[in-house]
Amino acid sequence: MKDRDNKIPRDTIAVNIKNYIDFSVNALRDILESRVSEINHKLEYKAEVSQIAIKEAKSDLNIRLEAMNKFREAMGDLTANFVTRNELEIIKDQIKNHISRGEHDVLCSRVDSLSFKVSECATKNELNSLKNQQIGFFIAIIILLLTTVFALLKGY
């Protein structure tokens, strides 16, 4: 009977095992909930950062698109004033027709008179240069004479 008295009753062992299992399950549940909570916080943070990055990227993209649209408008305005090839050909034909009607002689005489005036100006420039050289020479002689006179006067 002595062995029987030292034995722990089965109900007590079952209760102890149940308590141990409950404690272990609760501890594991707390650990898992803590990890899940950490993961959720990290995911929420990453989602917020991603949303901010997306907003900034959209803003940058809108700025670039606005600049591109302004550039396109400017190019459109510029090209709207360009002469087309067809218009240029028409203008060339009109010029050829005017020149062929006798205006060629008038244009040639105007070019000749302009070239004569240019050569005349060159001759006038040469004469003016020669006159300037002569004037400079006379001024130098006058200065030489004056310095000589002043030098002689100082000596007396």
Order of helices and strands: HHH
Helical content band: over 70%
Contiguous helical run count: 3
Structural class: mainly alpha
Fraction of residues in β-strands: under 5%
- Please report the total strand number as a whole number: 0
Uncertain spans: none
Task: Walk me through the structure.
It is a single chain. The chain folds into two domains: 1-84; 91-156. By secondary structure, it is mainly α. It has helices at residues 2-6, 10-80, 85-155.
Question: What's a concise summary of this model?
Answer:
The chain has helices at 2-6, 10-80, 85-155. By secondary structure, the chain is mainly alpha-helical.
SSE arrangement:
Layout: H1 2-6, H2 10-80, H3 85-155
Question: Can you give keywords for this protein?
Answer:
156 residues; mainly alpha; 3 helices; 94% helix; elongated
